[in-house]
Specification:
glycoprotein, Methylamine Dehydrogenase, Chain H, five-stranded antiparallel beta sheet, mainly beta, Integrin_alpha, six-stranded antiparallel beta sheet, Jelly Rolls, single chain, Alpha integrin
Protein backbone atom coordinates (compact mmCIF):
# COMPACT_ATOMS: atom_id res chain seq x y z
CA UNK A 1 0.00 0.00 0.00
CA UNK A 2 2.85 2.41 0.87
CA UNK A 3 4.49 1.74 -2.49
CA UNK A 4 1.28 2.49 -4.35
CA UNK A 5 0.87 5.72 -2.39
CA UNK A 6 4.42 6.86 -3.23
CA UNK A 7 3.90 6.07 -6.90
CA UNK A 8 0.67 8.07 -6.83
CA UNK A 9 2.51 11.04 -5.32
CA UNK A 10 5.21 10.85 -7.98
CA UNK A 11 2.74 10.80 -10.85
CA UNK A 12 0.70 13.57 -9.20
CA UNK A 13 3.79 15.80 -9.11
CA UNK A 14 4.36 15.24 -12.82
CA UNK A 15 0.70 15.59 -13.73
CA UNK A 16 0.27 18.88 -11.88
CA UNK A 17 3.26 20.60 -13.45
CA UNK A 18 2.55 24.13 -14.68
CA UNK A 19 4.28 26.43 -17.18
CA UNK A 20 4.65 30.18 -16.70
CA UNK A 21 6.34 32.82 -18.82
CA UNK A 22 7.18 36.52 -18.53
CA UNK A 23 8.53 38.88 -21.21
CA UNK A 24 10.74 41.97 -20.85
CA UNK A 25 11.19 44.87 -21.21
CA UNK A 26 8.09 46.29 -19.60
CA UNK A 27 6.76 49.66 -20.65
CA UNK A 28 6.32 52.51 -18.14
CA UNK A 29 9.32 51.13 -16.27
CA UNK A 30 10.53 52.67 -13.03
CA UNK A 31 12.74 55.68 -13.70
CA UNK A 32 14.03 55.31 -10.16
CA UNK A 33 14.91 51.63 -10.61
CA UNK A 34 15.25 51.10 -14.39
CA UNK A 35 16.52 47.55 -13.87
CA UNK A 36 12.89 46.65 -13.11
CA UNK A 37 12.20 46.94 -16.84
CA UNK A 38 14.12 43.65 -17.15
CA UNK A 39 12.93 41.91 -13.98
CA UNK A 40 16.28 42.52 -12.28
CA UNK A 41 16.80 43.24 -8.59
CA UNK A 42 20.48 44.13 -8.85
CA UNK A 43 22.63 45.57 -11.63
CA UNK A 44 26.15 46.79 -12.12
CA UNK A 45 27.35 48.69 -15.21
CA UNK A 46 24.09 48.07 -17.09
CA UNK A 47 21.72 50.85 -18.19
CA UNK A 48 18.26 51.01 -19.74
CA UNK A 49 17.50 53.50 -22.51
CA UNK A 50 15.69 53.86 -25.84
CA UNK A 51 17.53 53.37 -29.13
CA UNK A 52 15.73 53.75 -32.48
CA UNK A 53 12.40 53.40 -30.75
CA UNK A 54 13.38 50.25 -28.84
CA UNK A 55 13.86 49.86 -25.09
CA UNK A 56 17.28 48.24 -24.63
CA UNK A 57 19.59 47.08 -21.86
CA UNK A 58 23.20 47.91 -22.61
CA UNK A 59 26.51 48.52 -20.88
CA UNK A 60 26.67 51.87 -19.12
CA UNK A 61 28.38 54.92 -20.60
CA UNK A 62 31.38 56.41 -18.84
CA UNK A 63 30.29 59.09 -16.38
CA UNK A 64 32.13 62.41 -16.30
CA UNK A 65 30.29 64.41 -13.69
CA UNK A 66 27.10 65.02 -11.74
CA UNK A 67 26.14 68.68 -11.86
CA UNK A 68 23.18 71.01 -11.30
CA UNK A 69 21.80 73.75 -13.48
CA UNK A 70 18.70 75.95 -13.03
CA UNK A 71 15.61 76.16 -15.19
CA UNK A 72 12.69 78.54 -15.21
CA UNK A 73 8.93 78.46 -15.04
CA UNK A 74 7.22 75.12 -15.85
CA UNK A 75 6.49 74.06 -12.26
CA UNK A 76 4.31 76.95 -11.12
CA UNK A 77 1.86 75.71 -8.44
CA UNK A 78 3.18 72.13 -8.71
CA UNK A 79 3.17 70.28 -5.39
CA UNK A 80 4.10 66.73 -6.48
CA UNK A 81 5.91 65.08 -9.39
CA UNK A 82 6.48 61.58 -10.74
CA UNK A 83 8.46 60.65 -13.84
CA UNK A 84 7.57 58.18 -16.59
CA UNK A 85 8.52 57.89 -20.24
CA UNK A 86 4.91 57.78 -21.36
CA UNK A 87 5.63 58.07 -25.11
CA UNK A 88 8.64 55.68 -25.07
CA UNK A 89 11.10 58.09 -26.67
CA UNK A 90 13.67 57.62 -23.90
CA UNK A 91 13.25 61.14 -22.48
CA UNK A 92 11.36 60.92 -19.20
CA UNK A 93 8.16 62.92 -18.92
CA UNK A 94 6.53 64.13 -15.72
CA UNK A 95 3.16 63.55 -14.08
CA UNK A 96 2.51 66.52 -11.80
CA UNK A 97 -0.11 67.44 -9.22
CA UNK A 98 -0.82 71.11 -8.48
CA UNK A 99 -1.73 72.75 -5.19
CA UNK A 100 -5.28 73.33 -6.45
CA UNK A 101 -5.82 69.69 -7.43
CA UNK A 102 -5.00 69.49 -11.15
CA UNK A 103 -3.17 66.53 -12.66
CA UNK A 104 -0.91 67.83 -15.44
CA UNK A 105 1.13 65.62 -17.81
CA UNK A 106 4.31 67.40 -18.88
CA UNK A 107 6.11 66.06 -21.96
CA UNK A 108 9.89 66.30 -22.09
CA UNK A 109 10.99 68.01 -25.33
CA UNK A 110 14.74 67.66 -24.73
CA UNK A 111 15.07 65.41 -27.77
CA UNK A 112 13.99 68.36 -29.93
CA UNK A 113 15.39 71.32 -27.97
CA UNK A 114 18.64 69.91 -26.56
CA UNK A 115 17.72 71.11 -23.06
CA UNK A 116 15.04 70.24 -20.55
CA UNK A 117 11.85 71.79 -21.86
CA UNK A 118 8.48 70.62 -20.55
CA UNK A 119 5.21 71.07 -22.45
CA UNK A 120 1.81 70.52 -20.83
CA UNK A 121 0.02 67.98 -23.03
CA UNK A 122 -2.88 66.86 -20.82
CA UNK A 123 -4.60 68.04 -17.65
CA UNK A 124 -7.69 67.33 -15.55
CA UNK A 125 -9.08 68.04 -12.08
CA UNK A 126 -9.20 65.71 -9.12
CA UNK A 127 -12.55 65.38 -7.33
CA UNK A 128 -11.20 67.36 -4.35
CA UNK A 129 -9.39 70.51 -5.41
CA UNK A 130 -6.47 70.28 -2.99
CA UNK A 131 -3.09 68.83 -3.93
CA UNK A 132 -1.24 70.01 -0.83
CA UNK A 133 0.05 66.86 0.84
CA UNK A 134 1.70 63.83 -0.73
CA UNK A 135 1.27 61.62 -3.81
CA UNK A 136 2.43 58.29 -5.20
CA UNK A 137 2.09 56.82 -8.71
CA UNK A 138 2.33 53.10 -9.47
CA UNK A 139 0.37 50.23 -11.02
CA UNK A 140 -1.82 49.37 -8.06
CA UNK A 141 -4.30 47.10 -9.87
CA UNK A 142 -1.81 45.11 -11.99
CA UNK A 143 -3.35 46.11 -15.31
CA UNK A 144 -0.07 47.46 -16.72
CA UNK A 145 -1.22 51.09 -16.39
CA UNK A 146 -0.12 53.67 -13.87
CA UNK A 147 -2.51 54.81 -11.15
CA UNK A 148 -2.34 57.82 -8.81
CA UNK A 149 -2.99 58.00 -5.08
CA UNK A 150 -2.88 61.30 -3.15
CA UNK A 151 -3.61 62.25 0.44
CA UNK A 152 -4.01 65.95 1.13
CA UNK A 153 -3.89 68.38 4.05
CA UNK A 154 -7.69 68.09 4.47
CA UNK A 155 -7.25 64.32 5.02
CA UNK A 156 -8.91 63.44 1.72
CA UNK A 157 -7.57 60.35 -0.09
CA UNK A 158 -7.95 60.42 -3.87
CA UNK A 159 -7.35 57.59 -6.35
CA UNK A 160 -7.18 57.80 -10.15
CA UNK A 161 -7.17 54.64 -12.24
CA UNK A 162 -4.90 54.99 -15.33
CA UNK A 163 -3.57 58.44 -14.47
CA UNK A 164 -2.11 59.07 -17.94
CA UNK A 165 -5.51 58.70 -19.59
CA UNK A 166 -7.78 60.14 -16.88
CA UNK A 167 -9.45 56.95 -15.79
CA UNK A 168 -12.08 56.65 -13.08
CA UNK A 169 -11.42 58.78 -9.98
CA UNK A 170 -12.70 58.49 -6.44
CA UNK A 171 -12.17 60.22 -3.09
CA UNK A 172 -12.90 59.75 0.60
CA UNK A 173 -12.01 61.53 3.81
CA UNK A 174 -9.86 59.27 5.98
CA UNK A 175 -9.19 60.31 9.56
CA UNK A 176 -7.29 57.87 11.74
CA UNK A 177 -6.88 60.83 14.11
CA UNK A 178 -6.13 64.55 13.84
CA UNK A 179 -2.41 63.88 13.52
CA UNK A 180 -2.74 61.46 10.61
CA UNK A 181 -1.77 64.04 8.01
CA UNK A 182 1.17 65.93 6.57
CA UNK A 183 1.06 69.68 7.25
CA UNK A 184 3.43 70.47 4.42
CA UNK A 185 3.96 69.42 0.83
CA UNK A 186 6.47 66.58 1.00
CA UNK A 187 7.38 63.23 -0.54
CA UNK A 188 5.84 61.15 2.23
CA UNK A 189 4.86 58.02 0.27
CA UNK A 190 6.46 55.01 -1.39
CA UNK A 191 4.98 51.80 -2.81
CA UNK A 192 5.89 48.19 -2.09
CA UNK A 193 4.05 44.87 -1.77
CA UNK A 194 4.15 44.66 2.03
CA UNK A 195 1.95 41.61 2.57
CA UNK A 196 3.07 39.51 -0.42
CA UNK A 197 -0.32 39.29 -2.14
CA UNK A 198 1.02 40.55 -5.46
CA UNK A 199 -0.42 44.09 -5.15
CA UNK A 200 1.56 47.22 -4.22
CA UNK A 201 0.76 48.78 -0.86
CA UNK A 202 1.60 52.34 0.20
CA UNK A 203 4.02 53.36 2.94
CA UNK A 204 3.33 56.74 4.56
CA UNK A 205 4.76 58.93 7.32
CA UNK A 206 2.76 61.67 9.07
CA UNK A 207 4.09 64.85 10.63
CA UNK A 208 4.30 63.20 14.07
CA UNK A 209 6.89 60.67 12.93
CA UNK A 210 4.47 57.76 12.75
CA UNK A 211 5.01 55.28 9.94
CA UNK A 212 2.06 53.49 8.33
CA UNK A 213 1.23 51.12 5.50
CA UNK A 214 -2.02 51.42 3.51
CA UNK A 215 -2.94 47.85 2.56
CA UNK A 216 -4.20 47.50 -1.02
CA UNK A 217 -7.57 45.75 -1.22
CA UNK A 218 -7.84 44.65 -4.89
CA UNK A 219 -11.52 43.77 -4.50
CA UNK A 220 -12.48 47.42 -3.98
CA UNK A 221 -11.44 48.91 -7.34
CA UNK A 222 -10.81 52.66 -7.13
CA UNK A 223 -11.61 52.52 -3.41
CA UNK A 224 -8.86 49.98 -2.71
CA UNK A 225 -7.12 52.28 -0.19
CA UNK A 226 -10.20 53.82 1.42
CA UNK A 227 -10.77 51.44 4.36
CA UNK A 228 -9.08 53.09 7.34
CA UNK A 229 -9.00 49.72 9.14
CA UNK A 230 -6.53 48.59 6.46
CA UNK A 231 -4.08 51.36 7.39
CA UNK A 232 -1.59 49.66 9.71
CA UNK A 233 0.83 51.48 12.00
CA UNK A 234 4.35 50.12 11.60
CA UNK A 235 6.29 52.13 14.18
CA UNK A 236 6.90 55.60 15.58
CA UNK A 237 10.10 57.61 15.90
CA UNK A 238 9.82 60.68 18.11
CA UNK A 239 13.11 61.96 16.69
CA UNK A 240 11.14 62.67 13.50
CA UNK A 241 8.10 64.21 15.18
CA UNK A 242 7.14 67.88 15.19
CA UNK A 243 4.14 70.17 15.67
CA UNK A 244 4.07 71.07 11.99
CA UNK A 245 5.70 70.37 8.65
CA UNK A 246 5.83 66.83 7.40
CA UNK A 247 7.71 63.56 7.46
CA UNK A 248 9.56 62.42 4.33
CA UNK A 249 10.40 58.87 3.27
CA UNK A 250 11.47 56.50 0.53
CA UNK A 251 12.08 52.77 0.18
CA UNK A 252 15.02 50.90 -1.35
CA UNK A 253 17.60 48.23 -0.60
CA UNK A 254 20.37 50.52 0.65
CA UNK A 255 22.71 47.81 1.93
CA UNK A 256 22.11 45.31 -0.91
CA UNK A 257 21.11 42.49 1.40
CA UNK A 258 18.02 41.67 -0.65
CA UNK A 259 15.53 43.23 1.81
CA UNK A 260 13.96 46.65 1.31
CA UNK A 261 14.95 49.43 3.76
CA UNK A 262 13.17 52.65 4.76
CA UNK A 263 14.87 56.07 4.76
CA UNK A 264 13.21 59.08 6.40
CA UNK A 265 13.56 62.68 7.49
CA UNK A 266 11.35 65.63 8.45
CA UNK A 267 11.02 69.21 7.25
CA UNK A 268 11.61 70.49 10.81
CA UNK A 269 14.64 68.28 11.48
CA UNK A 270 18.17 68.05 10.12
CA UNK A 271 18.33 64.32 10.81
CA UNK A 272 18.05 61.63 8.13
CA UNK A 273 17.71 58.03 9.31
CA UNK A 274 17.63 54.58 7.71
CA UNK A 275 15.61 51.74 9.23
CA UNK A 276 16.99 48.53 7.81
CA UNK A 277 14.45 45.95 6.75
CA UNK A 278 14.53 42.44 8.11
CA UNK A 279 12.25 39.42 8.08
CA UNK A 280 10.68 38.09 11.27
CA UNK A 281 8.10 35.30 11.10
CA UNK A 282 7.89 35.78 7.33
CA UNK A 283 6.91 39.44 7.80
CA UNK A 284 8.86 42.55 6.76
CA UNK A 285 9.75 44.71 9.77
CA UNK A 286 12.14 47.61 10.26
CA UNK A 287 14.94 47.92 12.79
CA UNK A 288 13.93 51.02 14.75
CA UNK A 289 16.14 50.44 17.79
CA UNK A 290 19.32 50.38 15.71
CA UNK A 291 18.48 53.03 13.14
CA UNK A 292 21.30 54.03 10.82
CA UNK A 293 22.22 57.73 10.84
CA UNK A 294 23.13 59.65 7.69
CA UNK A 295 22.87 63.15 9.20
CA UNK A 296 22.47 63.97 12.89
CA UNK A 297 20.17 66.42 14.65
CA UNK A 298 22.55 69.31 13.91
CA UNK A 299 23.14 68.26 10.29
CA UNK A 300 26.58 66.78 10.86
CA UNK A 301 27.57 63.60 9.05
CA UNK A 302 27.67 60.22 10.73
CA UNK A 303 30.75 58.00 10.70
CA UNK A 304 29.41 56.27 7.59
CA UNK A 305 29.26 59.48 5.54
CA UNK A 306 32.43 61.35 4.64
CA UNK A 307 33.61 64.55 3.04
CA UNK A 308 36.07 63.53 0.31
CA UNK A 309 38.64 66.17 -0.74
CA UNK A 310 38.81 64.54 -4.18
CA UNK A 311 35.42 66.17 -4.88
CA UNK A 312 35.47 70.00 -4.76
CA UNK A 313 31.77 70.04 -3.87
CA UNK A 314 32.02 67.42 -1.11
CA UNK A 315 30.61 69.20 1.94
CA UNK A 316 28.59 68.60 5.08
CA UNK A 317 25.10 70.09 5.44
CA UNK A 318 25.84 71.02 9.06
CA UNK A 319 27.34 74.25 7.72
CA UNK A 320 24.03 75.31 6.13
CA UNK A 321 21.75 77.75 8.01
CA UNK A 322 18.96 75.18 7.68
CA UNK A 323 18.59 71.70 6.23
CA UNK A 324 14.94 70.60 6.15
CA UNK A 325 14.22 67.74 3.71
CA UNK A 326 11.03 67.80 1.65
CA UNK A 327 12.33 65.24 -0.87
CA UNK A 328 14.36 62.07 -0.27
CA UNK A 329 14.89 59.73 -3.22
CA UNK A 330 16.96 56.54 -3.57
CA UNK A 331 18.48 55.40 -6.86
CA UNK A 332 21.76 54.08 -8.26
CA UNK A 333 22.70 57.20 -10.15
CA UNK A 334 25.96 55.94 -11.66
CA UNK A 335 24.96 52.27 -12.05
CA UNK A 336 27.93 51.10 -9.94
CA UNK A 337 25.83 48.75 -7.79
CA UNK A 338 25.68 51.02 -4.73
CA UNK A 339 22.52 52.98 -3.91
CA UNK A 340 22.67 56.78 -3.77
CA UNK A 341 20.37 59.22 -1.97
CA UNK A 342 19.15 62.61 -3.29
CA UNK A 343 17.84 65.17 -0.78
CA UNK A 344 16.06 68.43 -1.64
CA UNK A 345 15.27 70.93 1.12
CA UNK A 346 12.60 73.38 2.22
CA UNK A 347 13.10 77.01 3.37
CA UNK A 348 12.00 78.75 6.56
CA UNK A 349 13.09 75.82 8.72
CA UNK A 350 15.13 75.65 11.91
CA UNK A 351 14.36 79.35 12.43
CA UNK A 352 16.01 80.44 9.15
CA UNK A 353 14.65 81.65 5.79
CA UNK A 354 17.29 79.66 3.94
CA UNK A 355 16.51 76.74 1.61
CA UNK A 356 16.70 75.23 -1.83
CA UNK A 357 19.68 72.96 -1.20
CA UNK A 358 20.23 69.67 -3.03
CA UNK A 359 22.60 67.06 -1.62
CA UNK A 360 23.63 63.71 -3.01
CA UNK A 361 24.82 61.08 -0.57
CA UNK A 362 26.69 58.92 -3.05
CA UNK A 363 27.04 55.25 -2.18
CA UNK A 364 30.65 54.10 -2.34
CA UNK A 365 30.87 50.88 -0.34
CA UNK A 366 29.20 48.49 2.08
CA UNK A 367 30.94 47.47 5.30
CA UNK A 368 31.51 43.92 6.47
CA UNK A 369 28.58 44.32 8.88
CA UNK A 370 26.25 45.39 6.04
CA UNK A 371 26.22 49.17 6.51
CA UNK A 372 26.30 51.43 3.44
CA UNK A 373 29.00 54.09 3.17
CA UNK A 374 28.48 57.42 1.42
CA UNK A 375 30.29 60.52 0.23
CA UNK A 376 28.40 63.77 0.81
CA UNK A 377 28.14 66.01 -2.28
CA UNK A 378 26.57 69.47 -2.33
CA UNK A 379 24.94 69.91 -5.75
CA UNK A 380 22.96 73.09 -4.98
CA UNK A 381 24.02 75.26 -2.03
CA UNK A 382 20.69 77.08 -1.57
CA UNK A 383 20.06 80.71 -0.65
CA UNK A 384 18.27 83.15 1.66
CA UNK A 385 14.95 84.49 0.43
CA UNK A 386 16.20 88.09 0.61
CA UNK A 387 18.85 87.26 -2.00
CA UNK A 388 15.97 86.96 -4.52
CA UNK A 389 17.61 84.01 -6.24
CA UNK A 390 14.81 81.51 -6.88
CA UNK A 391 14.16 78.64 -6.55
CA UNK A 392 13.86 79.46 -2.85
CA UNK A 393 13.06 75.92 -1.81
CA UNK A 394 11.85 72.62 -3.24
CA UNK A 395 8.35 71.22 -2.98
CA UNK A 396 8.50 68.38 -5.51
CA UNK A 397 11.23 66.14 -6.85
CA UNK A 398 11.55 63.04 -8.98
CA UNK A 399 14.16 60.66 -10.39
CA UNK A 400 14.13 60.67 -14.20
CA UNK A 401 16.40 59.84 -17.13
CA UNK A 402 15.93 63.25 -18.72
CA UNK A 403 18.46 62.88 -21.55
CA UNK A 404 18.13 59.19 -22.53
CA UNK A 405 21.71 58.26 -21.68
CA UNK A 406 20.61 55.34 -19.52
CA UNK A 407 21.48 56.80 -16.12
CA UNK A 408 19.08 58.50 -13.70
CA UNK A 409 18.91 62.27 -13.22
CA UNK A 410 17.01 64.32 -10.62
CA UNK A 411 14.58 67.24 -10.91
CA UNK A 412 13.73 69.42 -7.91
CA UNK A 413 11.05 72.11 -8.32
CA UNK A 414 9.91 75.19 -6.41
CA UNK A 415 6.18 74.99 -7.02
CA UNK A 416 4.66 77.41 -4.53
CA UNK A 417 6.92 80.39 -5.27
CA UNK A 418 8.80 80.79 -8.54
CA UNK A 419 7.91 77.65 -10.49
CA UNK A 420 11.64 77.34 -11.18
CA UNK A 421 13.66 74.17 -10.80
CA UNK A 422 17.08 72.59 -10.74
CA UNK A 423 17.93 69.65 -12.92
CA UNK A 424 20.70 67.39 -11.69
CA UNK A 425 22.19 65.76 -14.76
CA UNK A 426 24.53 62.78 -14.64
CA UNK A 427 26.82 63.75 -17.51
CA UNK A 428 28.12 60.92 -19.66
CA UNK A 429 30.44 60.60 -22.60
CA UNK A 430 29.37 58.35 -25.43
CA UNK A 431 31.91 55.65 -24.60
CA UNK A 432 31.07 52.39 -22.87
CA UNK A 433 32.64 51.22 -19.65
CA UNK A 434 34.70 48.21 -20.74
CA UNK A 435 34.29 46.39 -17.44
CA UNK A 436 31.67 43.65 -17.72
CA UNK A 437 28.16 44.59 -16.75
CA UNK A 438 25.71 42.22 -15.17
CA UNK A 439 22.14 42.07 -13.96
CA UNK A 440 20.70 39.60 -11.48
CA UNK A 441 17.05 38.63 -11.95
CA UNK A 442 14.52 38.53 -9.18
CA UNK A 443 13.36 35.06 -8.13
CA UNK A 444 11.87 33.49 -11.24
CA UNK A 445 8.62 32.32 -9.57
CA UNK A 446 8.10 35.86 -8.28
CA UNK A 447 8.67 37.31 -11.77
CA UNK A 448 6.12 34.83 -13.12
CA UNK A 449 3.51 36.12 -10.67
CA UNK A 450 3.53 33.14 -8.30
CA UNK A 451 2.58 34.32 -4.81
CA UNK A 452 4.43 33.09 -1.69
CA UNK A 453 1.35 31.16 -0.55
CA UNK A 454 1.34 29.24 -3.85
CA UNK A 455 5.07 28.55 -3.90
CA UNK A 456 4.92 25.04 -2.33
CA UNK A 457 3.02 23.86 -5.42
CA UNK A 458 5.26 25.77 -7.82
CA UNK A 459 8.92 24.96 -7.29
CA UNK A 460 10.93 25.41 -10.48
CA UNK A 461 11.88 22.23 -12.34
CA UNK A 462 12.92 23.71 -15.68
CA UNK A 463 14.10 27.15 -16.87
CA UNK A 464 14.13 28.39 -20.45
CA UNK A 465 15.67 31.73 -21.39
CA UNK A 466 15.25 33.44 -24.75
CA UNK A 467 17.24 36.60 -25.40
CA UNK A 468 17.42 38.84 -28.47
CA UNK A 469 20.13 41.35 -29.31
CA UNK A 470 19.83 44.19 -31.78
CA UNK A 471 23.00 43.62 -33.81
CA UNK A 472 22.52 46.90 -35.69
CA UNK A 473 23.11 48.82 -32.45
CA UNK A 474 26.29 47.18 -31.22
CA UNK A 475 28.44 44.12 -30.69
CA UNK A 476 30.18 42.25 -27.93
CA UNK A 477 29.84 39.08 -25.90
CA UNK A 478 27.39 37.69 -23.39
CA UNK A 479 26.94 35.00 -20.78
CA UNK A 480 23.81 33.61 -19.12
CA UNK A 481 24.35 31.94 -15.77
CA UNK A 482 21.90 30.46 -13.31
CA UNK A 483 21.60 30.51 -9.55
CA UNK A 484 19.99 27.35 -8.22
CA UNK A 485 19.45 28.69 -4.71
CA UNK A 486 18.58 32.37 -4.24
CA UNK A 487 21.37 34.90 -3.69
CA UNK A 488 21.21 36.41 -0.23
CA UNK A 489 23.56 39.35 -0.85
CA UNK A 490 23.82 40.34 -4.54
CA UNK A 491 26.57 42.92 -4.11
CA UNK A 492 28.96 40.29 -2.71
CA UNK A 493 28.57 37.79 -5.53
CA UNK A 494 31.14 36.80 -8.08
CA UNK A 495 28.85 36.37 -11.11
CA UNK A 496 31.31 34.13 -12.92
CA UNK A 497 31.34 31.66 -10.04
CA UNK A 498 27.85 30.49 -10.97
CA UNK A 499 27.34 27.81 -13.64
CA UNK A 500 26.62 28.72 -17.24
CA UNK A 501 23.33 27.81 -18.86
CA UNK A 502 24.00 25.32 -21.71
CA UNK A 503 26.10 26.96 -24.47
CA UNK A 504 25.22 30.38 -23.06
CA UNK A 505 28.39 32.34 -23.77
CA UNK A 506 30.11 33.90 -26.75
CA UNK A 507 29.52 36.61 -29.30
CA UNK A 508 26.04 38.08 -29.28
CA UNK A 509 23.50 36.58 -31.67
CA UNK A 510 20.25 37.87 -33.07
CA UNK A 511 18.30 35.34 -30.97
CA UNK A 512 19.55 32.79 -28.47
CA UNK A 513 17.64 30.23 -26.40
CA UNK A 514 18.92 28.01 -23.63
CA UNK A 515 17.25 25.81 -21.03
CA UNK A 516 18.10 23.68 -18.05
CA UNK A 517 16.25 21.13 -15.95
CA UNK A 518 17.00 20.43 -12.30
CA UNK A 519 17.05 16.99 -10.72
CA UNK A 520 14.58 18.24 -8.13
CA UNK A 521 12.43 21.38 -8.26
CA UNK A 522 13.84 24.39 -6.38
CA UNK A 523 12.03 27.43 -4.85
CA UNK A 524 14.15 30.45 -5.68
CA UNK A 525 16.37 30.20 -8.79
CA UNK A 526 17.67 33.34 -10.47
CA UNK A 527 19.38 34.23 -13.74
CA UNK A 528 22.52 36.35 -14.18
CA UNK A 529 23.09 38.02 -17.55
CA UNK A 530 26.58 39.35 -18.24
CA UNK A 531 27.44 41.76 -21.07
CA UNK A 532 30.90 42.68 -22.36
CA UNK A 533 31.41 45.51 -24.91
CA UNK A 534 33.41 44.81 -28.05
CA UNK A 535 35.03 48.25 -27.75
CA UNK A 536 34.42 51.65 -26.13
CA UNK A 537 32.07 52.40 -29.03
CA UNK A 538 30.22 49.10 -29.47
CA UNK A 539 28.35 47.03 -26.90
CA UNK A 540 25.58 44.38 -26.81
CA UNK A 541 22.01 45.74 -26.81
CA UNK A 542 19.36 43.44 -25.34
CA UNK A 543 16.01 44.19 -26.95
CA UNK A 544 13.97 41.20 -25.75
CA UNK A 545 14.12 38.82 -22.82
CA UNK A 546 11.78 35.96 -21.99
CA UNK A 547 11.83 33.65 -18.99
CA UNK A 548 9.80 30.44 -19.09
CA UNK A 549 9.58 28.14 -16.10
CA UNK A 550 8.01 24.75 -15.58
CA UNK A 551 6.94 24.18 -12.00
CA UNK A 552 6.11 21.18 -9.87
CA UNK A 553 5.03 20.73 -6.25
CA UNK A 554 7.78 20.90 -3.69
CA UNK A 555 9.44 17.68 -2.64
CA UNK A 556 10.60 19.31 0.63
CA UNK A 557 8.94 21.19 3.47
CA UNK A 558 9.59 24.96 3.49
CA UNK A 559 10.26 26.36 6.95
CA UNK A 560 10.32 30.14 7.26
CA UNK A 561 10.98 30.75 3.57
CA UNK A 562 11.82 34.41 2.96
CA UNK A 563 10.49 35.88 -0.24
CA UNK A 564 10.59 39.56 0.74
CA UNK A 565 13.35 40.65 -1.58
CA UNK A 566 14.53 43.58 -3.65
CA UNK A 567 13.54 47.19 -4.07
CA UNK A 568 10.12 48.71 -4.62
Amino acid sequence: MKKLFLVFLLFSAIYFSETYSVVFPTENWSQQYPEKAWGAIYIKNISTRVEEGKIVAVNVYKINDISASPGYGPFSQVSQTFSVDYNNDGYADIISLTYDGWVVIKENKMKETGDLSLENVRSYELPVRNGDGSMIVDDFDNDGKLDLFAFNSWQYAQFVDDVLNQGQASDKKIKKDNKFVTKWTVSAMASYDYNGDGYKDIFYVDYKGRFWVWINDPTKGVERFFNKNNIVKLFEDKDLASNGGGGVLDLGDLNNDGIVDLIAGHTDKKSIFVYFGKIANNQLIFDVDNKFVITTENGSLSEYVTVDPLYPNSKSPENLPSFGPTIIKITDVDRDGFKDVFVGTDAWRQGKNFGGSVYLFKGVNITSDNKPKFVSLELVHGSYSFENNPPYDFDAGTIADLDNDGVPDFVAADGNHSGNFYKIITQTQKEYELEKGYMVSDYLPKLAGILPKDLPNNFVKKIKVTIKFDLSLGDGSFEIRYVKSGIKDPQLIDPESYPLMPNASGTVLDTFTTEIEFDKPVPDPQIIIILKPASPFSAPHISYLKYEIETQPSQVIIKGFNWQKGDK
